[in-house]
Amino acid sequence: MTGQVRLGRFRWWHIDEVLPIEADLFGAEQWSPAMFWNELASGHFYRVATDDDGSVLGYAGLTVQPDEAWVQNIAVRRDAQRRGVGRALLEELLAEAARQGVRTVLLEVAADNAPAQKLYATYGFEPIGVRRGYYQPSNTDALVMRRVAPPTAYGTDD
To answer: 89-123, pLDDT tens digit by residue?
Structure first.
């Protein structure tokens, strides 16, 4: 990783470059190309983080609904972790939720992924439940976390 991280729109041509990141980070629970294609075709908000040379460092997606938004994924290449890439991607997702006027953002994170949980907590996410055996085939539990932004953050007091 050389210089500054750039965030841009996740496009179909990024899929081939994110698949090895998926395989490395998530193993048997990785997303398939079809899952990424479906997310993009559905018009969900996806961003990719790239380095100066255009190589993909990480990616993240958000599904926005009328009353809430769900973080679909955030992944950062191992050699780019702990350099602010995940933080930048999360901030971009939260900014999109704010632009859409959605105050409640939810996500699922592996119960054994303490570093990610810590990052989310710094942005106001709090655990609200557990989905037992959510991640398959490992049967790992998912911690459901929620962030509710204050109304004043969106220019309204309702």
So the answer is: 999 999 999 999 999 999 999 999 999 999 999 99
82 CB burial (10 A radius; 0-12, 13-18, 19+): exposed
pLDDT less than 50: residues of the chain: 1, 157-158
Indicate which CATH number applies to the domain containing 138: 3.40.630.30
Q: Is residue 1 one of the residues assigned to a domain?
A: no
Catalytic residue (one of 39, 46, 108, 135): 108
134 is catalytic: no
Establish if 125 belongs to a structural domain. Answer: yes
Count up the domains in the chain and report the number. Answer: 1
- 108: annotated active-site residue: yes
Range of the domain at 135: 6-154
Residue 90 is assigned to a structural domain of this protein? yes
Q: Does pTM surpass 0.85?
A: yes
User: Residue 104, Cα to own-chain centre: how many angstroms?
Assistant: 15
Q: How many CB atoms lie within 10 A of CB 88?
A: 18
> Which residue is catalytic, options 120, 123, 126, 135?
120
